Amino acid sequence: MDIQAIIDGIVDAGRLEIESVEKKANQQVRAIREKAKAEANQQKDRILKDSRVRINRTQAVIDQRADMQALRMHANARQKLIMIVLERSQANLKKMREKSNYKFVLAKLVSDAVHAVIPSLLHDQRIILHVSQKDKKTIQSMEIPYQERMNIQYDLQSNGGCEVESDDGLVKVLNTFESRFDRALPKIQQDLSIFFEEKITSG
Fold it and tell me: Considering the entire predicted model, what is its pTM?
């Protein structure tokens, strides 16, 4: 074997060794890179997860505050609308005497009040009917049940209606617009609250 062949053999062997070393080195580099990348991704995931948790918590707080504010706004709006309706209703009560059917309404209120008192009276007891001075002509023009047992007093301060009582004052029925409105007020407020809640929510 000549010298050149020996040298070529050594060079070839060296090249193979270098390639082997480079291959192992590249494998290690890839392994290191993949491990580093995996660790980096894990760390990034942890950070993102923590961030998402914080973001979700913050969003939940914001949503809760927004919901509470919306509920307050709805409640305030609903209450304002209810008050407007009640104020207008009370204003309309003051104008009832101007209505063409007021005489019929007053007659109905008086009749109901009288018939409510009668069962509680003794045989010879009289009935006291209290009405407003403003209703004097109207009362005088109508037929009132049990009028023969009745004393009519025009001393009532009211927008309309009457009060009826026994002559000893032990039995009394309030049948004015104001008293009927006050008795109906809880139901009116409940109905208006439901009505306006549906309107606000659907709007």
Answer: 0.59
DSSP state of 172: E
Identify whether residues 170 and 109 lie together within a single domain. Answer: yes
Predicted confidence at residue 139, as pLDDT, reads 95
176: phi then psi, degrees, rounded to nearest 5: -90, 165
Residue among 156, 154, 158 at smallest CA distance from 93: 158
* 143 plus 195 within the same structural domain: no
The separation between CA 185 and the C-alpha centre of its own chain, rounded to angstroms, equals 18
| CA torsion angle 115 117 121 124 (round to 10) | -60
**Do 140 and 154 touch, CB atoms closer than 8 A?**
no
Considering the domain architecture, whether residues 100 and 175 belong to the same structural domain is answered as yes
Number of domains in the chain: 3
